[in-house]
Structure of NAD(P)-bd-dom domain-containing protein:
Amino acid sequence: MASNLNVLSIGASRNIGYFSAVRLLEKGATVTFLLRSPSAFDSDTIIQKFVKSGHARLVKGDASNEADTERAWKEAGAVDAVIFSVGTYPKFQLSQGFVQTPVNLVTQCFLNVLCTIPTYPDAPQPKIIVISSTGLTPSAHAALPCLLKPLYGVVLAAPHKDKIGMERAIAHCAGWAWDPTADGPVSEEEILGEGWTERKGLPAPGSLKRMLVVRPALLTDGKCAADEGKGKGYRVSETELGGYTISRKDTAHFVVDALTRRWDEFENKRVNVAY
Protein backbone atom coordinates (compact mmCIF):
# COMPACT_ATOMS: atom_id res chain seq x y z
CA MET A 1 0.00 0.00 0.00
CA ALA A 2 1.13 3.57 -0.66
CA SER A 3 -1.26 5.52 1.56
CA ASN A 4 1.45 6.50 4.04
CA LEU A 5 4.30 6.97 1.60
CA ASN A 6 6.05 10.32 1.31
CA VAL A 7 7.80 10.46 -2.06
CA LEU A 8 10.21 12.96 -3.61
CA SER A 9 10.00 12.93 -7.40
CA ILE A 10 12.82 14.40 -9.49
CA GLY A 11 12.20 14.78 -13.22
CA ALA A 12 8.47 14.12 -13.06
CA SER A 13 7.02 16.92 -15.15
CA ARG A 14 6.25 14.28 -17.79
CA ASN A 15 6.79 10.68 -18.91
CA ILE A 16 7.73 7.89 -16.47
CA GLY A 17 8.21 10.14 -13.47
CA TYR A 18 4.86 11.81 -14.05
CA PHE A 19 2.94 8.57 -14.59
CA SER A 20 4.58 7.03 -11.50
CA ALA A 21 3.67 10.06 -9.39
CA VAL A 22 0.04 9.99 -10.52
CA ARG A 23 -0.24 6.29 -9.71
CA LEU A 24 1.18 6.93 -6.24
CA LEU A 25 -1.08 9.91 -5.62
CA GLU A 26 -4.10 7.86 -6.59
CA LYS A 27 -3.02 5.27 -4.00
CA GLY A 28 -2.94 7.94 -1.29
CA ALA A 29 0.76 8.81 -1.22
CA THR A 30 2.14 12.31 -0.83
CA VAL A 31 4.44 13.39 -3.66
CA THR A 32 6.77 16.39 -3.73
CA PHE A 33 7.75 17.46 -7.25
CA LEU A 34 10.92 19.43 -7.93
CA LEU A 35 10.05 21.42 -11.07
CA ARG A 36 11.81 24.08 -13.06
CA SER A 37 8.38 25.39 -14.03
CA PRO A 38 5.56 24.49 -11.62
CA SER A 39 3.26 26.32 -14.05
CA ALA A 40 3.55 23.24 -16.27
CA PHE A 41 0.84 21.74 -14.05
CA ASP A 42 -1.46 24.78 -14.06
CA SER A 43 -3.92 23.15 -16.47
CA ASP A 44 -3.34 19.58 -15.28
CA THR A 45 -6.62 18.76 -13.54
CA ILE A 46 -5.27 15.50 -12.13
CA ILE A 47 -2.29 17.11 -10.38
CA GLN A 48 -4.29 20.16 -9.31
CA LYS A 49 -6.77 17.92 -7.54
CA PHE A 50 -3.96 16.54 -5.40
CA VAL A 51 -2.40 19.98 -4.92
CA LYS A 52 -5.69 21.14 -3.38
CA SER A 53 -5.82 18.09 -1.10
CA GLY A 54 -2.23 18.69 0.01
CA HIS A 55 -0.95 15.39 -1.34
CA ALA A 56 0.97 16.97 -4.25
CA ARG A 57 3.56 19.60 -3.41
CA LEU A 58 5.19 21.65 -6.15
CA VAL A 59 8.68 23.01 -5.42
CA LYS A 60 10.23 25.39 -7.93
CA GLY A 61 13.83 24.53 -8.64
CA ASP A 62 16.30 22.77 -10.89
CA ALA A 63 17.91 19.44 -9.97
CA SER A 64 21.09 20.58 -11.72
CA ASN A 65 21.42 23.13 -8.90
CA GLU A 66 22.55 21.51 -5.64
CA ALA A 67 20.93 24.17 -3.45
CA ASP A 68 17.56 23.67 -5.18
CA THR A 69 17.83 19.92 -4.70
CA GLU A 70 18.65 20.32 -1.02
CA ARG A 71 15.64 22.60 -0.61
CA ALA A 72 13.38 20.00 -2.23
CA TRP A 73 14.50 17.41 0.33
CA LYS A 74 13.75 19.86 3.15
CA GLU A 75 10.33 20.85 1.85
CA ALA A 76 9.38 17.21 1.31
CA GLY A 77 10.01 16.34 4.96
CA ALA A 78 10.88 12.79 6.02
CA VAL A 79 11.01 11.07 2.64
CA ASP A 80 10.27 7.35 2.30
CA ALA A 81 11.26 7.08 -1.35
CA VAL A 82 12.81 9.00 -4.23
CA ILE A 83 11.95 8.42 -7.88
CA PHE A 84 14.62 9.90 -10.14
CA SER A 85 13.64 10.07 -13.81
CA VAL A 86 15.61 13.04 -15.16
CA GLY A 87 16.33 12.75 -18.87
CA THR A 88 16.58 14.70 -22.08
CA TYR A 89 16.44 14.16 -25.82
CA PRO A 90 19.54 14.40 -28.04
CA LYS A 91 19.59 16.97 -30.83
CA PHE A 92 21.16 16.59 -34.24
CA GLN A 93 23.96 18.93 -35.29
CA LEU A 94 25.59 18.70 -38.69
CA SER A 95 29.09 19.05 -37.28
CA GLN A 96 28.72 16.63 -34.36
CA GLY A 97 25.79 14.35 -35.05
CA PHE A 98 23.40 13.62 -32.16
CA VAL A 99 24.45 15.52 -29.04
CA GLN A 100 23.10 16.20 -25.57
CA THR A 101 23.54 19.52 -23.79
CA PRO A 102 24.89 19.43 -21.18
CA VAL A 103 26.59 16.11 -21.76
CA ASN A 104 26.27 15.10 -18.10
CA LEU A 105 22.82 16.42 -17.18
CA VAL A 106 21.48 13.19 -15.66
CA THR A 107 24.68 12.31 -13.82
CA GLN A 108 25.12 15.74 -12.28
CA CYS A 109 21.48 15.98 -11.22
CA PHE A 110 21.73 12.58 -9.57
CA LEU A 111 24.97 13.49 -7.82
CA ASN A 112 23.15 16.52 -6.42
CA VAL A 113 20.44 14.21 -5.09
CA LEU A 114 23.04 11.94 -3.47
CA CYS A 115 25.04 14.80 -1.95
CA THR A 116 22.00 16.31 -0.27
CA ILE A 117 20.32 13.20 1.20
CA PRO A 118 19.24 14.15 4.73
CA THR A 119 19.88 11.96 7.75
CA TYR A 120 16.65 10.99 9.41
CA PRO A 121 17.31 10.04 13.05
CA ASP A 122 14.03 8.15 13.43
CA ALA A 123 13.62 6.75 9.93
CA PRO A 124 15.59 4.48 7.57
CA GLN A 125 17.40 5.71 4.48
CA PRO A 126 14.89 6.44 1.69
CA LYS A 127 14.34 3.91 -1.05
CA ILE A 128 15.78 5.27 -4.30
CA ILE A 129 14.52 4.23 -7.73
CA VAL A 130 16.33 5.56 -10.80
CA ILE A 131 15.30 5.25 -14.43
CA SER A 132 18.20 4.23 -16.62
CA SER A 133 18.06 2.36 -19.94
CA THR A 134 18.71 -0.97 -21.52
CA GLY A 135 21.52 -1.27 -24.05
CA LEU A 136 24.11 0.58 -21.93
CA THR A 137 26.68 -2.14 -21.37
CA PRO A 138 28.48 -4.09 -24.11
CA SER A 139 26.51 -7.25 -23.27
CA ALA A 140 23.23 -5.31 -23.18
CA HIS A 141 23.97 -3.73 -26.55
CA ALA A 142 24.80 -7.15 -28.00
CA ALA A 143 21.44 -8.48 -26.77
CA LEU A 144 19.45 -5.73 -28.49
CA PRO A 145 17.32 -6.68 -31.49
CA CYS A 146 19.36 -6.03 -34.63
CA LEU A 147 16.97 -3.36 -35.87
CA LEU A 148 17.54 -1.29 -32.72
CA LYS A 149 21.34 -1.43 -32.59
CA PRO A 150 21.91 1.55 -34.96
CA LEU A 151 19.44 3.66 -32.95
CA TYR A 152 21.13 2.86 -29.66
CA GLY A 153 24.63 3.11 -31.08
CA VAL A 154 24.18 6.47 -32.81
CA VAL A 155 21.07 8.44 -31.83
CA LEU A 156 21.07 7.45 -28.15
CA ALA A 157 24.83 7.27 -27.66
CA ALA A 158 25.09 10.63 -25.87
CA PRO A 159 22.25 10.15 -23.34
CA HIS A 160 23.43 6.60 -22.70
CA LYS A 161 26.94 7.85 -21.95
CA ASP A 162 25.32 10.08 -19.35
CA LYS A 163 23.25 7.21 -17.91
CA ILE A 164 26.41 5.12 -17.53
CA GLY A 165 27.87 7.96 -15.47
CA MET A 166 24.82 7.91 -13.22
CA GLU A 167 25.09 4.16 -12.77
CA ARG A 168 28.79 4.51 -12.00
CA ALA A 169 27.94 6.92 -9.17
CA ILE A 170 25.35 4.48 -7.84
CA ALA A 171 27.82 1.58 -7.91
CA HIS A 172 30.42 3.64 -6.04
CA CYS A 173 28.06 4.69 -3.25
CA ALA A 174 26.23 1.36 -3.02
CA GLY A 175 29.44 -0.64 -2.96
CA TRP A 176 28.63 -2.55 -6.14
CA ALA A 177 31.50 -3.87 -8.26
CA TRP A 178 32.18 -1.89 -11.42
CA ASP A 179 34.10 -3.34 -14.34
CA PRO A 180 34.62 -0.73 -17.09
CA THR A 181 34.85 -3.48 -19.68
CA ALA A 182 31.58 -5.16 -18.66
CA ASP A 183 29.63 -2.23 -17.23
CA GLY A 184 30.78 0.47 -19.62
CA PRO A 185 33.68 2.93 -19.68
CA VAL A 186 33.05 6.33 -18.09
CA SER A 187 34.84 9.57 -18.95
CA GLU A 188 34.95 10.62 -15.31
CA GLU A 189 36.16 14.20 -15.81
CA GLU A 190 33.60 14.89 -18.56
CA ILE A 191 30.59 13.13 -17.06
CA LEU A 192 31.14 12.79 -13.31
CA GLY A 193 33.47 15.74 -12.81
CA GLU A 194 37.03 15.81 -11.58
CA GLY A 195 37.31 14.69 -7.96
CA TRP A 196 33.65 13.60 -7.84
CA THR A 197 34.28 10.91 -5.23
CA GLU A 198 35.42 13.63 -2.81
CA ARG A 199 32.30 15.78 -3.12
CA LYS A 200 30.90 16.99 0.17
CA GLY A 201 27.89 14.94 1.24
CA LEU A 202 28.44 12.07 -1.22
CA PRO A 203 27.56 8.81 0.55
CA ALA A 204 30.62 6.75 1.42
CA PRO A 205 31.25 3.58 -0.62
CA GLY A 206 28.85 0.87 0.46
CA SER A 207 26.69 3.21 2.55
CA LEU A 208 23.96 3.81 -0.05
CA LYS A 209 21.28 1.23 0.65
CA ARG A 210 17.83 0.52 -0.72
CA MET A 211 18.55 1.16 -4.42
CA LEU A 212 16.74 0.01 -7.54
CA VAL A 213 17.96 0.74 -11.07
CA VAL A 214 15.29 0.28 -13.75
CA ARG A 215 16.46 -0.23 -17.33
CA PRO A 216 13.47 -0.05 -19.67
CA ALA A 217 13.55 -1.05 -23.32
CA LEU A 218 12.85 1.53 -26.05
CA LEU A 219 10.11 3.70 -24.60
CA THR A 220 6.78 4.31 -26.30
CA ASP A 221 3.69 6.38 -25.56
CA GLY A 222 1.42 3.36 -25.56
CA LYS A 223 -1.21 2.42 -22.99
CA CYS A 224 -0.54 0.55 -19.76
CA ALA A 225 -1.06 -3.07 -20.79
CA ALA A 226 -0.68 -4.17 -17.16
CA ASP A 227 -3.75 -2.15 -16.20
CA GLU A 228 -5.79 -3.49 -19.09
CA GLY A 229 -4.81 -7.08 -18.37
CA LYS A 230 -4.10 -7.74 -22.02
CA GLY A 231 -1.52 -10.22 -23.24
CA LYS A 232 1.31 -11.33 -20.99
CA GLY A 233 2.21 -7.84 -19.86
CA TYR A 234 5.81 -6.78 -19.45
CA ARG A 235 8.80 -8.87 -18.40
CA VAL A 236 11.30 -8.02 -15.65
CA SER A 237 14.72 -9.62 -15.28
CA GLU A 238 18.24 -8.95 -14.06
CA THR A 239 19.44 -10.63 -17.26
CA GLU A 240 19.11 -9.16 -20.75
CA LEU A 241 15.64 -9.54 -22.26
CA GLY A 242 16.31 -8.61 -25.87
CA GLY A 243 12.95 -6.90 -26.08
CA TYR A 244 12.03 -4.12 -28.47
CA THR A 245 9.86 -1.73 -26.48
CA ILE A 246 7.88 -0.92 -23.38
CA SER A 247 5.46 1.93 -22.80
CA ARG A 248 6.25 4.68 -20.34
CA LYS A 249 3.00 3.88 -18.54
CA ASP A 250 3.91 0.22 -18.11
CA THR A 251 7.36 1.24 -16.84
CA ALA A 252 5.62 3.48 -14.30
CA HIS A 253 3.39 0.56 -13.34
CA PHE A 254 6.48 -1.50 -12.55
CA VAL A 255 8.11 1.34 -10.60
CA VAL A 256 5.09 1.72 -8.34
CA ASP A 257 4.55 -2.02 -8.02
CA ALA A 258 8.20 -2.54 -7.03
CA LEU A 259 8.07 0.32 -4.54
CA THR A 260 4.79 -0.56 -2.87
CA ARG A 261 4.50 -4.36 -3.11
CA ARG A 262 7.71 -6.04 -4.25
CA TRP A 263 10.57 -4.06 -2.74
CA ASP A 264 12.17 -7.07 -1.03
CA GLU A 265 12.34 -8.75 -4.43
CA PHE A 266 14.07 -5.90 -6.23
CA GLU A 267 16.07 -3.97 -3.61
CA ASN A 268 19.69 -3.34 -4.60
CA LYS A 269 19.23 -4.72 -8.09
CA ARG A 270 19.54 -3.52 -11.68
CA VAL A 271 16.60 -4.87 -13.67
CA ASN A 272 15.51 -4.75 -17.29
CA VAL A 273 11.87 -4.17 -18.22
CA ALA A 274 10.44 -4.96 -21.66
CA TYR A 275 7.50 -6.56 -23.45
Observations:
- The chain is about 40% helix and 20% strand.
